[in-house]
Design brief:
Helix content: 40-55%
Order of helices and strands: HHHHHHH
Strand content: under 5%
Largest sheet: none
Radius of gyration: 22 Å
Shape: globular
Distance between the termini: 57 Å
Number of strands: 0
Number of helices: 7
């Protein structure tokens, strides 16, 4: 919404590399489609896309006048999202949300507030994720391990943490 020039999100080449068909933001996507997308996407390409998109976003923000962050997006920018099919019909409420809030709120929402929306879902998924071989099924890297005789160990090579200095 902050970028005016070329399309920053997805083009045909990225869709092919990511192994996905959807160009919208994903809100309102049926669970079966989300599951299929999760199984087919190319994780390496997704990380590369995230890096490139992040750099482009940072570049735009560096050039942006800070006062522009407190302005609501121009109607033509919201219309562009509709034209480029960035939102599904069943999630049209997002357009109203985006057009009614300052750009700073829209920019910060995904990284500061949005994860809280999904905490219950994550909690329900964790038992299933722990059964899948991978990092979530492994034992914790730290926690009760590394504690000997009630004295904490540093995370690095089991080196004991020096005792706290006594206060006079």
């Amino acid at each position: 919404m902050l970028a005016v020039a070329k399309r920053l999100i997805l083009d045909g080449e990225w869709l092919k590399r990511l192994g996905i068909r959807h160009t919208d933001c994903g809100n309102g996507m049926p669970q079966s489609n989300a599951a299929r997308m999760s199984r087919t996407k190319n994780i390496g390409a997704l990380l590369a896309y995230r890096r490139i998109f992040g750099r482009r976003t940072q570049s735009i923000l560096r050039r942006l006048n800070p006062e522009a962050l407190w302005e609501k997006p121009a109607p033509e920018r919201v219309a562009r999202i509709v034209k480029e099919k960035g939102v599904r019909k069943n999630s049209a409420w997002l357009l109203k949300f985006w057009s009614g809030n300052p750009s700073a709120d829209i920019l910060l929402m995904p990284i500061t507030r949005h994860p809280f929306v999904h905490l219950n879902e994550i909690g329900r998924m964790m038992p299933a994720l722990k059964r899948i071989p991978g990092p979530l099924s492994a034992k914790p890297a730290f926690g009760t391990r590394g504690l000997r005789a009630g004295r904490p160990q540093s995370i690095r090579k089991g080196v004991p943490v020096p005792p706290a200095a006594d206060k006079p």
